[in-house]
């Protein structure tokens, strides 16, 4: 039986430093692993850069958007997609280093991209919709329109279930096969902007209220609230069976233990809010910040 817990924590370690970084790359909004050695960073300077983990060198700069690049997402081993404040989605070939197609995404700012499978992805936006897109045809194949507020995030919980984080503080549960919302979760006090999956039943959510909440999908209820950040939780990433990470507007990355329901480490070094974090491998986390840097951390 699950118990509802609220955990208040002191920072156990605020001295951990990054082992490598990229500077002066513009404010970073999204980081995405492309393969075992290479990752992508999306910047306010309208570009996407590929970077080598081993050499810490920029390998290529992808240009094509007309405004800041807000999100980048790998779909296949070669194709990735990006969205920008120009409301455009770009489809890219990583190997050919070129844009395959550009399409009008949403009528207002776009907020996230989520891979559904090797042929499909979803996008969210200020226009209060979630759109599903085909990699093959570069076309929108379905739109969720029944949510009457800004949508900040979508996350694939399983092959048929999409978690949707909304401005009204609710998490909506969407059935892909039934094409309808099948549940709502209330717990945060303001918009929900981050997710990660911890087990086959448990997922975590991050919010502008600075809390991280753990939820049982089967019971459709919150089972714990983790407090430790002092600003928005912008990004979450699962690290292994027990650990997950969070990136926040308070300039820190925190490592949390799911089994112990507590913070186990705080990574400091950024000088502005951390908008994105990404697990690169079993030892390295990447963070991107508004301080115009990308940092690589060992955990």
Care to give the gist of this entry?
The chain is built from no helices and 29 strands. The protein has 299 residues and is an all-beta fold.
| Helix-strand topology string | EEEEEEEEEEEEEEEEEEEEEEEEEEEEE
> How many structural units, i.e. domains?
1
- CATH fold-level assignment: Methylamine Dehydrogenase, Chain H
* Number of extended strands: 29
> Span between N and C termini?
31 Å
Beta-strand residue fraction: over 45%
Low-confidence stretches: 1-15
Count of alpha/pi helices: 0
Q: How confident is the prediction overall: mean pLDDT?
A: 94
Top-tier CATH class: Mainly Beta
Order of strands in the sheet with most strands: 1-22-21-20-19
The main pleated sheet reads as:
5 strands, mixed
CATH superfamily: YVTN repeat-like/Quinoprotein amine dehydrogenase
Helices and strands in order, then pairings?
Blueprint lengths: L4 E4 L11 E3 L5 E6 L4 E6 L3 E6 L5 E6 L5 E6 L4 E6 L3 E6 L4 E7 L5 E8 L2 E6 L4 E5 L5 E5 L6 E8 L2 E6 L3 E6 L4 E7 L5 E6 L4 E6 L4 E5 L4 E7 L5 E6 L4 E6 L4 E5 L4 E6 L6 E6 L4 E6 L4 E5 L1
Parallel strand pairs: 1-22
Antiparallel strand pairs: 2-29, 3-4, 4-5, 5-6, 7-8, 8-9, 9-10, 11-12, 12-13, 13-14, 15-16, 16-17, 17-18, 19-20, 20-21, 21-22, 23-24, 24-25, 25-26, 27-28, 28-29
